[in-house]
Amino acid sequence: MTRQSSRIPVSAKGIVFDGERVWLRRNERAEWELPGGKLDPGEQPTETIVRELREELGLAVDVRQIVQAHRYAVADSIDEHSGVLVVSYLCTPGVRVGDQELDGEAGEAEFRLFTLSEVTEAIMPSFYKEAIFFAADLQNGAGSGSGR
Predict the structure, then answer these.
(1) Residue 53 placed within a domain
(2) Which of 36, 44, 100, 104 has the maximal Cβ count within 10 Å?
(3) Helical spans, DSSP H, in the chain
(4) DSSP state, 105?
């Protein structure tokens, strides 16, 4: 039996805390998600995060460690209906290097800081919530990323 490989896009996301709050982006489906985006040709995921967070949040970041990889199918998407591999990394914010993005590739951009209790109630895929809580534990020195 011949096995076919599937090719799906890869999206690199950054988990960026500002104190006890985390940056999120509202997407075109009116859901909240982590800032970041798809890899450009020849780009490594960590390079994507640095580029995307500079463009979206106007922040330089230090990519610390991978937190989660999750295949996510977006039913109404042109290129993600078969799934997109979302790879999320914990990042440390650096200096502000620009302004927040006002108009993104999918239209008007909205970014906001959320407390962890607000993340619990936010309309967003559950795998993002899991990644955020895991990263919060890592950020706070729990080390195990036990979540909530």
Answers:
(1) yes
(2) 36
(3) 45-57, 116-121, 126-139
(4) T
**CATH code at 130?**
3.90.79.10
Query: Other C-beta atoms within 10 Å of 46: how many?
Result: 18
Tally the C-alpha atoms within 13 A of residue 62's C-alpha that lie toward its C-beta. 5
Give the H/E segment covering residue 29.
none
Residue 20 lies in a domain: yes
- pLDDT tens sequence across 11-36: 999 999 999 999 999 988 889 999 99
Asked whether residue 133 is domain-assigned, the answer is yes
Range of the domain at 130: 10-139
DSSP string, 118-143: HHHHSSS-HHHHHHHHHHHHHHTT--
Q: Say if residues 54 and 24 touch (Cβ distance below 8 Å).
A: no
In a domain, 101, yes or no: yes
The count of domains in the chain is 1
Q: Could you tell me whether strands 59-72 and 103-104 are parallel, antiparallel, or unpaired per DSSP bridges?
A: unpaired
Look up residue 13 and give its two tokens. 């996301």
pTM score > 0.90 for this model? no
Q: By percentage, how much of the chain surpasses pLDDT 70?
A: 83
